[in-house]
Amino acid sequence: MKIAVISDIHGNLEAFKAVLADAGQSGADQIVCLGDCIGYGPDSNRVVEIIISNRIPAVTGNHELVLHNKLHLNWFNWLARQSLEKIVPTLSQEVKNFLRSLPPSLVLHDARFVHGCPLQSIKTYLFLASDYRIRRALDKMEENLCFVGHTHDLLLIRYDGRKVRRSRLVKEETLLEDGVSHIINVGSVGQPRDGTNTAKYVIWDTRGKKVILRSLTYDIARVVEKIKAAGLPEAHGHRLW
Q1: What's the rounded Cα separation, in Å, for the pair 124 and 145?
Q2: Which one of 40, 83, 98, 161 counts the least CB within 10 Å of its CB?
Q3: What are the residue boundaries of the structural domains of the chain, listed by start?
């Protein structure tokens, strides 16, 4: 079975459509979303509508938390807060209800899916989690594979019960080692921060016991223009290049 794992779309419809098309062409049997569907980008409502219509399982991201309580806005930097203050009122009631219903984590196909850090932290950045915290989380976790997003970057963590090993997720294919726990940070579809400007996601091949990194080009200029037209902070567009 092939599972496409996506995260941090952030209202970038052009990047999202490129990923959906690629996942279909790659033979993905299912797509799972790790949250932060909204914020930054100009098409947050449409992105979530597509997730709903395609029945894509998803978890809560930190940007979705503002739908539960506006006080969560205080957690963001002023540019992110400014975009959320503009975007949230444009969301339909159906989209708002859907985002409020999302769980903090999911377990599917004997793997865990969470936005920030296992076991089910929405706000913890993986690069800030100490080896001690990683060990404790993975020792408690019944699954030996966890997919996360949140950092907009790519990372692979391996834990053999003694030592935590961290490395960049840069290879096209990464084999999952037997008897080892793995955390895969899948990067970002709509706001990559790994030094490139392509939409990122991964395909988990459950039979081949491997993770395949996908990196796609899309029409960035169109997204930038839509960000300007929507009156969102232009910095969100500049970062896409």
Answers
A1: 18
A2: 161
A3: 2-238
pLDDT tens digits, 171-192: 899 999 999 999 999 999 999 9
Dihedral angle at the C-alpha atoms of 109, 114, 117, 123, nearest 10 degrees? 180
Quote the distance between the C-alpha of residue 104 and its chain's center.
Answer: 13
Unique residue bearing structure tokens 């060990």: 135
CB 15 within 8 A of CB 44: no
The pTM of this model reads: 0.97
For 70, the token pair is: 């506006």
Note the pLDDT tens digit of each residue in 27-86: 999 999 999 999 999 999 999 999 999 999 999 999 999 999 999 999 999 999 999 999
Q: Cα-Cα-Cα-Cα dihedral of 8, 62, 80, 21, to 10°? A: 20
